[in-house]
Amino acid sequence: MAIQRPRGVNDLLPPFSGKWRAVEALFHEMCAEYGFKEIRTPLFEDTDLFKRGVGENTDIVQKEMYTFEDQGQRSLTLRPEFTASLCRAYIENKMHGLPQPQKLYCLGPLFRYERPQAGRFRQFHQFDIEIIGTISPLADAECIVFCWDFYNRLNLRDLTLRLNSVGCPACRSVYRLALQEYLRPAIAKLCPNCQGRFERAPLRILDCKCEICRAAAIGAPAIVDYLCAECSEHYHMVQEILQACAIPYTADSSLARGLDYYTKTVFEICALGLGAQNAVCGGGRYDGLIEIIGGAPTPAMGVALGMERMLTALAAQNEDIDVEEGIDAFIATDFNDASTVLAAFALASSLRSSGVLTAMDYEVKSLKSQLKTANRLQAAYVVILGRPEVSAGIAQIKNMVSGEQSEIELKQVRRYLLEH
Ligand code: ATP
Ligand code: MG
Questions:
Q1: 140 near 301, Cβ under 8 Å?
Q2: Separation of 14 CA from ligand 2 center, angstroms?
Q3: pLDDT value at 320 more than 80
Q4: 165 near 234, Cβ under 8 Å?
């Protein structure tokens, strides 16, 4: 029996891979515009990095990590997210010694052992930006504006931006107590997941999708009423900046996000047409994380944008991603004459090395069938190089749009195609 790919992972095939690369190109371009520099970290890290950096209490660490032991009995984990790796790299490479803040970005595959379903895979891809080394609310807003701009440029519509502040350890602990107090009488009625969250992560109960948990959370105290002066001021500023940029948002005190390390700002953008898995990106401020994983206290803000869900949302909205199709030239030749094929192949190679997108066939084919291939490949020009042309040192060039055919010197073909 043929071997199949593991559950929850995908093959990226052409022509879809071209659209994928176009989106990546846009992301790289936007990062340059916003001043983010690329960083590439390893696909696997010391397991402790994620235990400490993502948080023991999170779904990711408790049940979603791909953890294995290598031949040297080290516990390693395939990265389930970028932020912890980036912060590790920031500390390890002494990037705090560089001008601050450091604006970094990365993209690539991540691994989580989740139940595969629409919009949820075991290997999925994210774009990620991080601004490390400033407490300014401008950084928070910049990450949000970046996402908004990115989706706008891709024509992704019907987006909703939810914004909240989860405060700092000081004000959040007061709020946690108030929230637990409020929910305590309803513990038995909560879903099993939320019963487990009651002690570890009560804020996340507010974000549960279950009807019963939603009902239990109605009327619960809101974190905005518990923020300390500094967190409250920060939250206020972020909102003011978003308003100045005319970005619509909903201040939603039930938004908690799934990672332990967030402080102050958290946000999520959802797109219509995705069903239950409708969050296309999520992020927030994590002023305590770098210290947690062994660096000096360093404030930071970041966001991760999911690739697959965004592409699904675009498809659901009938929005296509434009990619250049077609090639510049197709070389048609006489496959019954070996030296003619060699001349054609040499021409194809020299065109390619000059940057001309060039194709030719491999096996014996009639001229008619070669022209068919040229059409299928959407060639702008066909260069016909048969036995008589080779001996005369010329080639026929056919413009596939106008149908016009002309004869030019073989030596001039390259220049002709480069100029047209
Ligand atoms: P969710 O609540 O949907 O599980 P999350 O909070 O775990 O999302 P983050 O870790 O914040 O997600 O990742 C940011 C984005 O990455 C998500 O908004 C989503 O678009 C995408 N994403 C997360 N997990 C997956 C997955 N398993 N498959 C595909 N995309 C994912
Ligand atoms: Mg998740």
A1: yes
A2: 28
A3: yes
A4: yes
396: amino acid identity, one letter: Q
Q: State the DSSP string of 231-272.
A: HHHHHHHHHHHHHHTT---EE-TT---S-TT-EEEEEEEEET
| Cβ of 55 below 6 Å from ligand 1 | no
- Closest ligand 1 atom to Cα of 268: 18
pLDDT (mean) for 179-189: 93
Nearest CA to ligand 1 atom 24: 120
Cβ 114 under 6 angstroms from ligand 1: yes
What span, in angstroms and rounded, lies between the C-alpha atoms of 272 and 270?
A: 7
Tokens of 418: 């480069």
pTM above 0.70, yes or no: yes
Full strand arrangement of the beta sheet holding 394-399: 358-360, 327-333, 379-385, 394-399, 405-409
Residue 139 has pLDDT above 90, yes or no: yes
**What is the reported pLDDT for 208?**
87
The Cα–Cα gap between 271 and 314 comes to: 9
Kindly provide the b/e burial profile for residues 45-62, where b requires at least 16 CB atoms within 10 angstroms of the residue's own CB: bebebbbbbbbebbbbbe
Average pLDDT over residues 139-154: 98
124 lines ligand 1 (CB under 6 A): yes
Helix/strand/coil (H, E, C) string of 58-111?
CHHHHHHCCEEECCCCCEEEECCCCHHHHHHHHHHCCHHHCCCCEEEEEEEEEE
Contacts of the segment 75-78: beta carbons below 8 A, 24+ positions apart = 75/46, 75/47, 75/48, 76/44, 76/45, 76/46, 76/47, 77/44, 77/45, 77/46, 77/47, 77/49, 77/50, 78/43, 78/44, 78/110, 78/111
Mutation test residue for ligand 1: of 85, 106, 123, 124, the one with most atoms within 8 Å of CB: 124
Q: What is the pLDDT of residues 281-290, one digit of tens each?
A: 999 999 999 9
Contact 54 CB / ligand 1 (< 6 Å): no
In the three-class reduction of DSSP (H, G, I as helix; E, B as strand; rest coil), residue 139 is classed as helix
Higher pLDDT, 31 or 254: 31
Contact 166, 262 (CB under 8 A): yes
CA distances from 327 to 313, 351, 359, 386 (A): 30, 12, 8, 21
| 199-232: pLDDT as tens digits | 988 998 988 888 899 899 999 999 999 999 999 9
